[in-house]
Amino acid sequence: MRKSIFNRGGFLAIGLLLLALLAGSCLPKLPAESGGANITLYGFSIMKESLEKSIYPGFSAKWKTEHGVDVRFTSSFAGSETVTNQILQGVNAEIAILSIERDAERLRQGGFVTSDWHAFPNKGIINKTPFVILVRQGNPKGIHDFPDLAKPGVRLIHPDPVSSGGAQWSVLAIYGSELVKSEKQTGEPDQSHALQTLRAIWHNVISTPGSAREARTQFETGFGDALVTYELEGLLMKQSGTPVEIIVPQATIFSEHPAVVIDRNVSAAKRPIVDAFMQYLWSEESQRGFVKYHFYSITNNALSEENKEFGHIDLPFTIDYFGGWGKAYPQVIERIFRDQVQRRK
């Protein structure tokens, strides 16, 4: 009788042990235990080259050397407004790099970003680039500044401000350029002239793709006479042999791009490596990588000077000229562009 009881107890103990081992094998492993880690990043369209060719490999090599762990990245690129909407709808992005700070604020309001991105270096801005005009080789339409885009017969490609942060920067570049130039000439910004210039230019828009990169693709295929876009897009096109010329306006805006952690999607186990990657974005190595792919460094002007392809801008300005995105969006993008330009075309 005792032997029978002992056998049943022994089998029970072995069964419980096997169940425990099986359950343990199903528990999520930390990156170091599983032999690797994956970071999911959603970015606005023009971030692709610098991230995939420089920033990702640099961080992966650094983390491998310091921790012995392989780091992989999953990326998705689209217009900044589109990326933001995708995250708000539930995609599993852990980091977002956006064209405009307003989109970061939308993610905060939606409860997806709970940490303060302004606590990162440079208030969360990782790089910048000015807005320029791309034209066909030889500049057959004689375009030398933003107002020339309003000439009769000019066919302009311009991304859609509804989906593209770059398109919103472009609107601010055109409108702000006329304000800055008139202010330098007379001491007062001529808002009426700036509005009329923006209206006349928008009248010549023949296509509004969803992102700056989609707009570039259209232009590369031979569609349109001119494209307003980030300077780096023009430099990448010239680097690839596309027959275009870059026209640097007398006055234009520098777009500045925030990076944020999508806190809702980051597990406690993943948090250290996500935070480490975020800090890496402001390292000298990372900033030099951005400059190599035609972004200006946000931390070190000397690094930007290493890129001899950058054009000269007489009157550069930033979003601060409009009082920040909190004022620029409602006052210029909505009340001026949407209500007085786009709806009247």
Account of the protein in words:
Strands 1, 2, 3, 4, 5, 6, 7, 8, 9, 10 and 11 form an 11-stranded mixed beta sheet that branches. The protein is globular. The chain folds into 2 domains: 138 residues, Periplasmic binding protein-like II (D-Maltodextrin-Binding Protein, domain 2); 158 residues, D-Maltodextrin-Binding Protein, domain 2, CATH 3.40.190. 46% of the residues lie in helices and 18% in strands. With 345 residues, the protein is an alpha/beta fold. It has 13 helices and 11 strands.
What secondary-structure arrangement, pairings included, does this model have?
Elements: H1 2-26, H2 31-34, E1 36-44, H3 48-67, E2 70-78, H4 80-88, E3 95-97, H5 101-109, E4 125-136, E5 156-157, H6 165-186, H7 191-203, E6 205-207, H8 212-220, E7 226-230, H9 231-239, E8 244-247, E9 251-261, H10 271-280, H11 284-292, E10 296-297, H12 301-304, E11 315-317, H13 325-341
Most strands sheet? 11 strands, mixed
What would CATH call the homologous superfamily of the largest domain? Periplasmic binding protein-like II
- Return the CATH class of the largest domain: Alpha Beta
Give, in order, the helices and strands.
HHEHEHEHEEHHEHEHEEHHEHEH
Task: Please state the second-level CATH architecture of the largest domain.
Answer: 3-Layer(aba) Sandwich
- The geometry reads as globular
- CATH topology-level name of the largest domain: D-Maltodextrin-Binding Protein, domain 2
Low-pLDDT stretches are 1-33
Report the end-to-end length measured between terminal Cα atoms.
Answer: 96 Å
Helix content: 40-55%
Number of helices: 13
* CA-atom Rg in angstroms: 25 Å
**Number of domain units:** 2
| Overall SS class | alpha/beta
